[in-house]
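Q: My labmate handed me this sequence with no annotations at all. I'd like to see what the chain might look like in three dimensions before we decide whether it's worth expressing. Could you predict it?
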Amino acid sequence: MHLPSLFATVTFLLSTRTWGVAGAKTFVVPHTAGKDDAPAVRAALASYRSDSTILFQKGITYNILTPIDFGTLTNVEIAIEGNITLPAEIPVVQAIVADSSFPGHWFKIKGTNVTLRGTPDPKWGWVDAHGQAWWDAMEQTNRPHGWNFQVTDGVLKDMKLWKPIAWNFALSGGKNIRAFNNQIHAKSNSNGFPFNTDGFAAGGTNLLIEDNMIINGDDCITVGNGANGVHFRNNYCEGGHGLSIGSLGKGGQMSSVQNVLIENTVMVDELYGARFKSWTGGAGLARNITWKNITLRNVPFPIYITQNYWDQNLGPKPNSTSNSSTAIDTFNFINFVGDQEDKPYKEGTCISDPCWYYVEGATGKEVIIFDLYPGTATNVKTKNILVRPQTGAAPRVMCDPTTVTSDPGFICQNGLYRPT
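A: Here is what I predict for the chain of 420 residues:
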């Protein structure tokens, strides 16, 4: 099936599906001032894991001071109409995460026909993780992941996350999920940078992620291994690391990502626009991936593909003689408009010298960088790339003609951008 018809079918089914929770049981989460409200939720789950609503009431700020693993749910709605606060003390959270009983995320949800929702009310439905203190301290030890939503037939809507410590929504392993009208506000009000505050981790099947606001310090979306049928549209991304596929192939991993459409998205103050990243020595295939109708403002790397990804947190860039990586087949970059940040800058995640995003030989004017291995990439295309450096300089590209097998939509060279 061709990409447009595939996504027309998936998007129609997820957008028009009648989502509802059968049954009339409702558990209203009780609140005790100054106490942890999570134990009451965990105690009630035995009676409310099916055909139920679990309600955090409007007008109450709940203390969820320990993680909640909801287990496997069937026909359940989790409604966060009140506010939620997590522990403010860094050592308290670190001790919980370090304990062997930690479920991997502060909130862990599995099951079938599950809705996780907040409220459209701008004053309520906020989840405050007090991430600013972690960013100011540059503390990266024993940080919790936020929300694991690994369900089949799920809805994630109207959630509002305030100052999350790090990773936010993980949909990996989920199937038939629609996530919309959610907000992530991981913006620092100091020089402390919100490391690893990824927006959506999308390694699932048939995922529709639309109409969300993601202000963070890492990938707006990261489409990981196992993804098939991911549609990300009509979203706003600010401050992070772009619309990313990967990273794939770490440690020689066999990876698979197929049928991804990312479109109609605004990128402001992002380090990257469209981005693919795979590790040297990896294996597998990333196939049928399209980024289109992308608006960029103040973005240093508008289109960036690398098969030489590395993680600065693990040490210096590795020396490798391997020429293998996750293979690329049918990538499309269509209708990119806006401006490129091409003046000297230092992005907040830079803790190495040179910075992890340094590209040897680059001038800072490259609107397209293809860092590919020979024989690993086929049918990579660009069309209507109307991104210009802010200084008024002529846009450039970096591309080794020995690594492309067909016309990529511009003259493949290290030089001026010349569309074909």
